[in-house]
Amino acid sequence: MKLLQAHGFLSRLLLALATGYIWFFYSERVFWSFWRVGEDTPFFFLLGWLLYSVATYICLILIQEFRVRSVWAMFLVGAFFGWLIEGVFVMTLFGAEGIPFPLTVSWTGLAWHALISVVLGWYVLQQALLHSLTRTAWVSALLGLFWGVWSIFWSLDNVEMVSVEAYALHAFLITGIFICMQRAYARLGAQFSATRLEKIFLGLLVLAWFGFITVPAFGLLAIVLPVLFGVLYLALRKNKKTETRQNFLSVLDTPVSYGRSFAVLFMPLIATGIYALAQGLGLVLPTNFVILGVTLPSGFVLLGVSLWKVFRAKGIV
After folding, report:
1. Does the model's pTM come out above 0.70?
2. What is residue 99's three-state secondary structure?
3. Sign of CA dihedral 159, 217, 27, 43
4. Could you give the CA distance from residue 272 to residue 270 in angstroms, rounded to a whole number?
5. For site-directed labelling of 44, which of 1, 9, 17, 135 has its Cα 20 to 30 A away?
6. What is the DSSP string of 155-182?
7. Main-chain phi, psi angles of 99, to 5 degrees
């Protein structure tokens, strides 16, 4: 018995908030790795979660509208999500500290948001949760390994490293909320069919932000975004014509055992273990450059492969 009717606005809103938290979890909390004094207040935590949920709501519409099921099509949705966050709202797509445009087309929109947050952290982990306890544990452990290795570098960025206890508290707390959000799927229903009014409202919101904030800030360079979104639209429209399976949201309400859900705790457990080992040994390593050096070109490569796979598809991808 579903807690809410699948076609109701409240159900869609809660699904967007639940998924928005999961994508926010990877994109912000894993990225920063611990609470930043003076910046990560409860107000800004909630504000960030809500902003990500708005972007997520739009992406859930894309998944439903364009019958997104394959990993390649999902990466394109992740690209839309990353460019929406980093291009329209935050605007680091046009250049970030130490990383010039056009490299910022990939970092962090493709290299982190699309690859880590949407594809690996959500799509792949969700499939593992639906498959078995063993696969869930392995995927969670690998994500935890990435998290822990990434967090080592922060001391090089003039950031005072927090204690192992504080790191663990942050990691397990935010992962506990993550598990609650993932388990909420079974109560929210699998169908996601946004109304025309919702689509118009969200579209106007993005257009207004782009027109009144992004364009004045970057002028003609802002034209890059409509071009990038246009390419994604054409690819996703082709995906809709060739994909014969139901969209990925159709499997979200499949019940998952508590054992599999709690196996996700391997993420903070391994991340904390790596952090504690590095701090105990006094290791200060530029792991950010290693990860950036791998994921930044990978973002471009995966975008190209995803476009190629989707455009050439004749049946199930």
Report:
1. yes
2. strand
3. positive
4. 5
5. 9
6. GGGT-PPPPHHHHHHHHHHHHHHHHHHH
7. -130, 115
